[in-house]
Amino acid sequence: MVVELSAVKSVSPWQTHSVRIVSVKAEIPGVMTYRLKFVDQAVGNSFTVEPGQFNMLYLPGYGESAISVSGYDPENNELLHTVRAAGNVTRALSRLVVGDELGLRGPFGQGWPMETARDGHLVLIAGGLGFAPICSAIETAVQQSSRYRRISILAGARSPDQLLYGQQYNLWKAAGAELRLTVDRATSQWSGNVGVVPLLVNRIEISDPATTTVMMCGPEMMMWYTAKAATERNIPAENIWLSMERNMNCAIGHCGHCQFGPAFICKDGPVLRYDKIASYLKIKGL
Question: pLDDT value at position 69?
């Protein structure tokens, strides 16, 4: 079981540590969730991570790839990473099996502001593979549901078979969370919403916009229109948080690959406040 994520870090993120694959779970075609355990138990005992942070996964001969932490089990010192096989590193990772080892360094970046949302309505929004970075926030929220007045989970994908984490939906609802799903293209078996994610924002009850916090991750265009829908419902822009997914090579802001306006996603993000970056989201090709 995934339990509360801590904000304290005691393992050096600059050092690569060996982790072993404990299990591999197929989520949707081409996307797997890897459960990783530190080979050195002392390192595992010292490791902590915040929801929304990421690790650099390293495979000798292939390089590193920045992967969001989708879950953390501190009782067993195990990390969950949901990965799409898309580049050299992630394709090599897809060929590994239970028992294989790889390198990990981290955690890096700024995570979700879970405490900021406390005592209010927490709205967690995911689009496509953006479900992975928001999943750790969902798990943390539902396990601490008494801290929030209300929890709403909104998620969308291109088609029903592209929705991640289906086996966890009933657990989230059992914990009291509201869950709304949508797809771009329905199948004959689909009886849920059809349409884009921003439309879901208009379908949930928001009794007090001033104490509502939105956290979202997905394609930038989706996040732009979803944030617009949220502000149109009088949710303050400073209460809206986005996890940006840009190419992160070094994780320390030196290489410049992940620069977004004045910010470097790897160290200033990946979670950024909407009002701080809204003007840059409008710039085509940035």
Answer: 96
